[in-house]
Every structure is written in C-alpha cells, then in structure tokens.
Amino acid sequence: MFKARKFSSHWFSIVIGFVSCLLVSTSIHAEVLDKTQPYQMMKQVSEQAFSRLKAEQDIVQQNPEHLKVIVEEELMPYVNDRYAALKLLGQNVKGADRSDVGVFMQAFRKYLVTSYAQVLTQYTNQTIELGPEPRLEAGKRITTIKVDIIDAPRPNIKLEFKLRKDKKTGEWAAFDLIAEGISLLSSKQSEWSGKIRQEGILAVAKELESLAAKPIHFERTQ
Using CA atoms, how far apart are residues 173 and 79, in angstroms rounded to an integer? Predict the structure, then answer.
C-alpha cells in the first residue's frame, strides 16, 4: 500500500515501470504512430505495449539485458529526453560549458534507458485506462494526459503524463510524469541539484554513467 504524499524510491521505480509499459510499442507498428496527435498516440502505444512485453517474456527471462534493447528501440522515440535533461538541470544550465551539458544529456539518456529496463522486470500483466482526451488549445505546447493503472487487487494508481509539442515538427513527446501530485522530474531535480552545484555537471554525469552501466536483473521476492 503506498502512503500518500510520500514519494519513496520504491514508488518511483514502480511508477517509472508503468511509464515504460505505457510508452513501449512494437517496431512493426511504430511507423504508423501519428505523433502530432498526443492522445491517440498514447492510446495506440499503450494498447500495443503489453502484447510486446508478453510476446518477448521468454527472451527477457533468459537475457534481462534485452529489455534495454526494447527500451532503446521502442520507448525512447516517444520521450523527449533532451528537454527533460535541461529541465532537470534548471538554473545550473546558465553559464555552464555547452560540452558539459551535452555530456550530461547523453548520460541522462543512458540512465533513463537502464532505469526503464530495470523496472520493466516488474511487469505482471497490469492494464491501463486513459482518461478523457484533453482539449489542445491553439498555441499551447504542453498537454497532460491522465491515466489509471489497473493493478487489482490493489487500488488504481492515478497518473498524469506531461507531453510537449515540438515547435518545428508539431510532434509530441513525453517529458514528465506526475504521481500523487508529485513531478518525477522535479523530485530528481531536487535530489541532484545540490550535487550539481557543489561538484559540477560532469560529476553528476559520471554518476549517471555508472548507474546506466549496471546490468539488468530480476528482483527476488521473499
């Protein structure tokens, strides 16, 4: 049972796992996804997600690292990791060396891939229900799509996905997730901002590289 207003690392891992499950799609259908329609895109991807995970469970059980391949090929095209990285850096971007920021972005992307792959090991046939389609206001580049995670017999988990529209292409991509009113991006920003200020962007990038290099493994339940 999750406690309200307490954003634990375990809660973060499970929610990120749901993010991955929602956004992963099969390579067969990836080409037909219309990224200019955020709600339809999320709906189609979520419907395809679980069939892909179910179909490849035997491979994953034999080689958990295969989850990184799935995430890299199928999840990341729907995540604006560069924008998320810049949001995470926040005010620390000002005056920073551009090459350092580039290194951080690359490390953050690798960290996301490994994080998503690791929590995908928790997949146990959850289902997803999308909320009402949001109205896209002219000129607005940020939208929110509400999702219910059905994980009976546990209570439903209510999430909100934040997506941003690319001004040039008109395509949308996810960059943040809000759970129980708490932004995952903001929570990680709070966790790392102090170290960035004290030790620098490259120090945190090095830590992210180390975390990204960890092998995927299945948690053993008692």
Answer: 5
Alpha-helix runs per DSSP H in the chain: 9-23, 27-30, 38-55, 57-62, 66-70, 81-89, 98-119, 184-199, 201-212
Which tokens in the block code for residue 58? 């035997």
Is the predicted pLDDT of residue 142 greater than 90, yes or no? yes
Q: How far apart are the first and last CA of the chain?
A: 17
Its pTM stands at 0.79
The burial class, CB within 10 Å (0-12 / 13-18 / 19+), for 13 is middle
Helix (H) / strand (E) element for 176: namely strand 172-179
147: enclosing H helix or E strand:
strand 142-150
**pLDDT tier, 205 (very low <50, low <70, confident <90, very high otherwise):** very high
**2: confidence class by pLDDT, cuts 50, 70, 90:** very low
pLDDT tier at 164 (50, 70, 90 boundaries)? very high
CB 21, CB 53: distance < 8 Å: yes
Q: Give the span between the Cα atoms of 61 and 187, in whole angstroms.
A: 31
Query: Which residues have a Cβ under 8 Å from the Cβ of 60 and sit 6 or more positions away?
Result: 53, 66, 67, 120, 121
